Amino acid sequence: MRAYVAPDGSSAEYAEENVPYQSKTFLPVSSAGVTEGDFAMIIGFPGRTSRYASSYYIDDLVNYHYPNWVRIFEDALELIEQAGARDSSVAIRLASMDAGINNGLKNSYGMLEGFTKTGLLQRKIEDEKLLAEFINADTDLMKKYVGVLPALDSLYQEQRKTRDMDFVLGSLGWADYLSMANGIYKWAVEREKDDMERERGYQDRDSVSTREWLEDAQVNLVPSFDKDILKYFIKKAFDLPQGQKIQAIENVFAEKEGAQREAYLDEYIDNLYGGTAIGDLDQRMKMFGMSKNELEELGDPFIDLAVALKPQRDEFIICRKEFSGASTRLEPRLIAAYAEWKGDELYPDANGTMRFNYGSVKSYSPRDAVRYSYLTSLNGVMEKETGEDPFIIPAELKRAYAEQDFGPYEDPAIGDVPVNFLTTNDGTGGNSGSPIINGRGELIGLDFDCNYESVAADYLYNPELARSIVVDIRYVLFVIDKVYHLEALLNELTIH
Known about the structure:
Layout: E1 2-5, E2 11-14, E3 39-44, H1 55-86, H2 88-93, H3 95-118, H4 120-136, H5 139-145, H6 148-160, H7 163-171, H8 176-191, H9 207-216, H10 223-238, H11 247-252, H12 258-275, H13 281-288, H14 292-296, H15 301-342, E4 355-360, E5 364-367, E6 370-372, E7 375-377, H16 378-384, H17 395-403, E8 418-423, E9 435-437, E10 443-450, E11 468-472, H18 473-483, H19 487-491
Antiparallel strand pairs: 1-2, 3-4, 3-9, 5-6, 7-8, 8-11, 9-10, 10-11
Helix pairs in contact: 1-3, 1-4, 1-10, 6-15, 7-10, 8-15, 10-12
């Protein structure tokens, strides 16, 4: 028997000798299906979770970064909508960006909602108070850990002195023209160094991927929208507090104030885009091969802006590295202190390595009078079709549904083919495709997503609301067998 610790701190034992060995496949497939309360295991390679992040880090997420990203995403979507309304071809070219920003916005909403519902920040603060009391009660622990929390506090306080400027300076890269100019000039600067002395990402071996980026950017390059997004972030730079101004932008608008500054912004943007060759693929690739001096003598307005921004961008990168180095030294000590306090009850963070956890098949209720069943059906798939991506149902699946020949894949509880089910397994980014296994060691599904209420689970797992969304293996088998008739593939599987 082996004991395992679950995300909620409970433990269970699992008899490994009861897992049947099959000669035809490493993992037998179950056609028996699932019911509410069934045991479920997940094995995979999730990315990272941050369950033991400090309150100072969470404070930044709750009160600064995610609220700021919500505003940026909402405003960017409005700019995309306006650009699309002016030109339908632009709407098509911006569709991928629109989808990506919408995903980011949904994630930010989910994070903030999760932080609020769980009271994460206050719980972190209370945990750290108790941790400090635990450390201060033992002389040996004080020697090891007493300075960790104050040091983290000081580190974040220092970072907050420039975080508004840092946020806007980093966000200027949303404008493709400026992003490419920054990259081209940075490459020219780094080429003056020996290859091994260059910054990461700027060595000779990285030039192929950079060329691909500069070439691929042409596909969806929309100058009119790029103007809008750069103008938006320059306005953000105007509003930065004293002591956090972006000097390159201040220099351009030094003689302009108030309405004058706003009026000159339009003229400046028009001159930038009207006078640059960055938007031309052939000219851009020639620039990528130029030396630092050649670029500086070129007179291209975007290259000139990149040159002017570089000192502050370099300072920003140095500060970010120093912050990262300091936090990398302090955070493991904080986790070690938690480990001493919690002992065997400490549930480890995901760190990109193979990870196992167990849970159960379970419905959930996110709010009053709303309940999501543990199982969805093929009929539900049919009901969702709109004829537009992503809700377009293949003709083969429609035919199979119309024939109602569900064979052994029908779930008697719903009288239909099951499609997805919910479990309490603790999955995160990187778990997509991870096998979900029952207590007999049989494959019952594949993890591919989490519910909206799980978005903030990387920071605090909530067993009442966090759910993994799993494609039922019976649906996979139904598609292989009844929809596409892939008998050869079906015969390769050991099915119970």
